[in-house]
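URGENT: need a sanity check before tomorrow's submission.

F., can you look over the Outer membrane protein beta-barrel domain-containing protein record below? I want to be sure the sequence and structure line up before it goes out.
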Amino acid sequence: MKSAFALVLLSAGLTATSAIAQTKTATKPAAAKTSAAKVSSKTSTATKPAATRTTTTARPAAKPVAKPAAQPAAKPAPTTPAPATPPPASSPKLEIPGVAPQQAPSFAKGTIGVNLGLGLGNGYGYGYSGLGGSLHSSPAISLSVEKGILEGIGPGVISVGGLVGYKSDSYTWDILGNDYKSTWSNIYIAARGAYHYNFTDNPKVDTYAGVSLAARITRYSTNYSDNSIGDYANKTRLEGGIFLGGRYLFTDKLGAFAELGYDMSYLKLGLTSKF
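Structure tokens as predicted:
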């Protein structure tokens, strides 16, 4: 009985020892893990101060010297546009009561007109009365130029210009079978002013009237023995004139003109041009 009980105890003791041994063996890895965790924790803990020290002891990186910001290029000052030159104030038009503005102005400010004509009619009264002679007159040749310079004085346009002309006259008579002849030559240089107003609806028509102031240079010659008249005829004199005229343009620049008045002759006819 005792021997059986002892066996039981021995068996129980072996079993308990085995169980304790297994328990110790099973817990060792956990301890290892714990130890490893502690080591890891220590390592982490130990490395942190190092990192901290490194961060603490490391000199702050030198701050880059801030370059002054490039100033933007100065914008050019806005240029104020020059004020537009106002057009010259046109002179107020002088309205003539009862006269309507010209219907189709063909002669304006800046227009240039040129007339080349032949004059008919003697206006100087040459000749010897009572001698039974005859007077011969050549056509008066004239060239005139004018330019429109002023508008707004009434409905029309004022022009100024000049005229150069030549005219000759001769008188012949017979005394006791002798033929005598006297000749007058006239050079006419005039300054002229005219007023252009178109009374029609046709833009090709230009009608005008004006006055002139001229120097008439007369030269006299004769084969008659008594040349006393030469003392009177060879001279230069100032003369005034008046004229009324009109031109008609066949094209934009070429046409015909006619003038009535008293200067070189009573009537002038010829060609005209406008620029």
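My own read: The helical segments are 2-57, 230-233. Strands lie at 112-120, 134-137, 140-151, 157-175, 178-196, 205-222, 235-249, 254-262, 267-274. If you see anything odd, call me.
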